[in-house]
Amino acid sequence: MIMNTTLVFYLGLHLLGDFYFQSDTMAEKKRTAFSMVIVHGLIYALPFLLVFAFGNIVAFFVLVVSHVLLDALKFVVERTLGSNGVAFVFDQLLHLLCLLFVVAVFPASIAFVDTYAMQVRAFVLLLAAVKPVSVLFLQVLGYLKPGNLPSGKSGAGKIIGYLERLLLASLFLMGQLGAIGWVIAAKAFARSRQISESPEFCEYFLVGTLFSLLSVVALYGLLFH
Questions:
Q1: Domain-wise residue ranges, the chain
Q2: Which residues contact 21 (CB under 8 A, 6 or more apart)?
Q3: What's the mean pLDDT in 189-205?
Q4: Closest CA relative to residue 91, chosen from 106, 63, 72
């Protein structure tokens, strides 16, 4: 496997702290109020208490402090240059490098993680495929969204995307790759009227669907091959 199991575990904790324990409101406030960067840092530390509990005390402090420092740097950069998809991707890459650094410099074998290695990888795949991929798409390709696109129920489109990738990732884990085509076909059928009436929506729909599929494929390959 490409990724060290401890690294996968740390990645899962990072995803929990940086995406699932951070609301959209907090993410917005972090851009204008430095105090929210500190609050987020404290919340980010919560899932990493598992690292502390397993006795990796130095790793815990390095992971949390480095995250706060990187977020502080991002705060300054965004106040100066503005927020964009490139900054988001670069920020996440730096966080990943910090995880790699900790695993390399403070190597530790966590018995629980090693015992349930495949389950940990599966859980991290599901975590990564849902909200983080959604945020990445909006940051990098959100500008493609047609201006006349009906909003529908508030947040429904986002939830549909979450469920789509959750289902795709689950099918990969179960080895049911043949069912993936049915998922995409069902999604296209549900949007058939909008696809036929709006070329812009058709293109946006296709980009979003392919992005979801490619993201799950890449994540599965990274975690399991």
A1: 5-115, 143-224
A2: 43, 44, 46, 47
A3: 87
A4: 72
